[in-house]
């Protein structure tokens, strides 16, 4: 986007009479980043996380348990299956607890180790890594990709670019298909895929999620982290000078400069950085870590692997770029090699900090409460709704009757039988059978009438009186569920 900005010249300037203006761009053109591949200990950790996260994401919907999909969020039936758990919309509190637990976990690990989530497990990082691997298979390494983009369109360029995009699109669609498979049984979805017999919402989400994966990992890449993700902006609130971050040791590396192997650094007046710029070339965000901590850095540690490889070739000690705290760099503490045994001892002053202890304590309390609540949850849920059409009426033999609708939800995968009783008003009885049978994971609405004898009704004041419905399992272990309601005595 551009605008013509009028120039205000000095009096008598010829530009004033001509009414000329200057063309100024309001947005800087985004320079394409060509990350170079890198090998090393941290790269192996990153790829291990890629394999683990994607095996979990793509494989989990295909697992079966108790004759159904092991993880399925069945929105149409309003039931959510997670392993042995059967959850209903009334269990939404557990989702809230899980989100709070995730948030405090993010705060805790960020305070201790920086952007570990961004560098190793964030879907944007993981899929960018996969898409870059595909790109390298078709177009080659960094120099070859830059040369291919700068060259004219030829048959070679066409098939390399086209092949890459075809694989990207297929991977994006498979990702969208898997995502939908968490909400629609994936085996039936797989059958529908061969006949393209998806429903309208399935079509929308497969294509939407597939397009999002294709666009974010294939084109936007670092721009998602820099401009769309809020975490990059508020991460500084969780950092302090004892947070482990990817750091360049300027005291050891500067002054930078090229040199021959074996050069005496003291006589040459040089630091250990040979200014090879490999740390910049491997960075997926295109930043120079030697300029200090920057919000664009996702802590992928590619620069650490690249620099350690150069240090090995120059016969310098590793760790010019490393995980370190700002306080450790200021004190010039010796660098432990984090990629090789023996493992460094725990830095207790680094870990035992007030904010770490507070986040850790809150995280433990929430985790214990979440697990305890989930393990003690009732397998029967009951909702009571009064019949709004008829609040109270007089039936045969002068009995006062109120009609209620009970929703019974069986949160187990075995058939259950329940006995319903009413308490709170002497002589109150249920009209009809007090026993209800439910199929595995079934939710049913049951209409029940509560009747009070005329002599008991006469002893009560007109208006609402509290009662309780007691629902007890028959022939199975489990606690009874009590739900409050009110019985109306007409005037």
From TrEMBL:
Keywords: 4Fe-4S, Electron transport, Iron, Iron-sulfur, Membrane, Metal-binding, Transmembrane, Transmembrane helix, Transport
Listed InterPro entries: 4Fe4S_Fe-S-bd, 4Fe4S_Fe_S_CS, Cyt_c_oxidase_cbb3_FixG, Electron_Trans/Redox, FixG_C, Helical_ferredxn, Ig-like_fold
Coiled coil: none
Residue stretches spanning the membrane: 45-63, 92-109, 166-183, 203-220, 356-376
Presence of keyword Transport: yes
Highest taxon, organism lineage: Bacteria
Pfam families: Fer4_18, Fer4_5, FixG_C
Stated name of the protein: Cytochrome c oxidase accessory protein CcoG
Source organism per UniProt: Ideonella azotifigens
This protein's encoding gene: ccoG
